[in-house]
Every structure is written in structure tokens, then in C-alpha cells.
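#struct-help
A.M.: can someone run this one for me? Single chain, 293 residues.
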Amino acid sequence: MILITGASGQIGLYIFESLANREEVIGVDVKECPIKDLRSFFVLGDLRDAKLAERLVKDADVVIHLAAQVSVEKSWEDPVFDAENNLATTINLLKVCDGQKFIYFSSAAVYGNPKYIPIDEEHPKNPMSPYGVSKLAGEHYCRVYSEKAEPVIIRPFNVFSPRMDPNSPYSGVISKFISRAKQGLPPVIFGDGKQTRDFVHVKDVVEFVKIAIKKGKSCEAYNVGTGKETSVLELAEMLLEIANLDLKPIFSEPRRGDIKRSCANIEKAKRIGFEPKTNLRKDLEDIFNNLKF
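D.P.: on it. C-alpha cells below:
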């Protein structure tokens, strides 16, 4: 059986949905599962409850751990809440493992401002936000508990999907840009727009999880991105073109902890079979044309 924590979140729900088609799965989250057909395989609960964690892990062969507070901005506003959610849940799960494969979702935020591009897994770790610190601490806990579990660490870069919610405090730049474009408004860019990101479609993340379950090596970390660098300004201009809007972006003050460049070296992931299929322009067109904000 595969246990998926954070199964109602943007990434977790796609993984839950995909694996439920061919595996025995249980999803758990503090939010109700939005897909009715999956609710019979779902537990509503908070994994800060150690007894709940123990009960769910006991019957699992694989744990895919996504449950977390995922907003960098929220982590600054309430770093204690961030640490409680991101570390207590991870520790509660790890300490009751008994040989399970443990897929831990970390983040590219552990790297901080890169010293070189593209960023490989051996890059120095210097997180610039409480969120990044909590994710890196979770990686260390995985390694500390590696005699009880078989941890595989995933570091996703900037994940986007058709289920993005621009009204959520956890939403990324793509959903916010699309939301404004749908209203005929220009995108708002924090800083000069020269900051770059590696935007990866959730479908590629789901595929890598399936690979990691079978081929991921214990205590190893893997970047999941595309290996392609796109500036926020390029992204804004692309979406304005897709929306057929003759507008210019609005520039605002930079955000605290916002890194200048980010792009994944994915050679390590490729060596175990990962081949990203993200096509940023086409994927954005599909999302823009089908999303109703």
C-alpha cells in the first residue's frame, strides 16, 4: 500500500489520482479531498498527531510525504507554524517507519541564491527563508532515520498545473499572471523581472515520483525540473501574447528572500529514467484556454 500525505494539495492530488488508478493507496490531508471518487481511499487528519501517523504508516509499503506548509511568504509571517507543520509531520512519520520507501518532497528553496547555474544536487545549501530551512532540516531528518526508512529526496523546482489557485496564499507566479490576464490586466512583477525560474509541469513531477519509487536510491536527492531557465519578464510577455493583450507588466518592490536565478541540473534524475515533457509555451496556452478563474 502507498500512503500519500498532503494528498489534497496541488501536487499531492495529482499523485494520488494517478497512483489510485493502478495501486492500493491511502491519501491523508488536513483538507477534504476534492475528488469524490477518491474519498473512500482518503483520511482527513493532521499528521502532527503522532498516533495517526503511526496508524497510517504501519500498513504502508511506500510513503510519499508532501504534507507541508509550502508558502515562502507565510513562513516569514509565522516561522513557528512553518516549522511545526514541516518538521513535526516528517519526524512523526519517519520514527514509526519499518523499512518503507520514503519519498520526501523537499524543495529547490534549500539551495538559496545559486553560486552556479544549472544547480546540481551537490550545490551548497543556503536557504534564504524559514520555509527553505524547514525543508532542508527535513532532508537531514530523513538521513538520520535512514535505518528505519529508505528515504529518497525530491527537490522540485517551480511546479505549475491546471489546478493552480491564484487566490491561495500558496499560489505561484504563473497562476497570478494568468488570473490577471483573464481579467484583461497586466501582470505584476516583483523586482526587475530578470529573476529566472525553472518551470516544470506537474505531470513531470508525477512521472518522476513513479520512477523514484522503483529506482530512487536511499539517502539520495534528485532535482526535478526541466533544465531550462525562463525569466519572470519572459513569462509575463509570453502570457500577454497568449492572452492577446497589448499591455506592459507593472513592476513592484522585490520580495524578501526572492532569489535571482534558478535552474535545475537534472542529469542525476535522467540517469534513473527521467525525461521531462514540459513545453512551457504550449502548457501555458492549454491552461489559459481551459482555466476559469
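A.M.: thanks! The chain has a mean pLDDT of 94.
D.P.: also worth noting: Residues 2-159+199-224 form a domain with the Rossmann fold fold (CATH 3.40.50.720).
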